[in-house]
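DM from R.C. (forwarded with permission)

"hey, sorry to bug you on a friday — could you get me a structure for this? deadline for the figure draft is monday and I only need the backbone to look sensible"
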Amino acid sequence: MNRRVSIKYALGLGLMGIFSFSTFEWRRLHKTIDLKSLQKSKTLISELAETIIPETDTPGAARAGVSTYIINILSNCSSVVEQNRFLNGLQEVESYALTAYDNSFIDCSANERIEILNFFKSKDEYIIPFMNRVHKKVFGPPFFTSLKRMTVEGYCMSELGATQGLAFNFVPGRYNGCTVLQRNQKAWATK
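My reply, with the result:
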């Protein structure tokens, strides 16, 4: 066989493999979802959010109702791709917890939950910052990044988070753009 013909066949097979994978991934991210599946995952979302912002001397994410906020954002404000990416991420969390710890995420201990989230954090980030920007631009934000962002937003916008988790000052006296916070001082929030 001629070397040029062999190279053409190899390139053709490689391009067909890339095209078929891209088509599969596109179909997986663009399928319509049943929004009831988000409601079924409410306890898992609540436990994930509680692991990110646990209850200490301030209320945690579960008590602040962050899971309801995340479900509302995904149902009403997110594209089909973001919804599918989030649901796929929830399934990956469950399957990883079953594989690594022989328990569902909800039944794992606090340390195991933190290890699971650290695994997904490291999985979603590249060492080279440029690759993170390219991946986000092409495929959208990764699951863990979206989960963390929506958890913090939902917590800070909830009544419990704004009044008890953050220092609530209804009418500030003046605007200070750069102020030095004292040790263990709460950040400022408003409604």
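R.C.: lifesaver. DSSP finds nine helices and two strands in the chain.
me: no worries. The chain has a mean pLDDT of 81.
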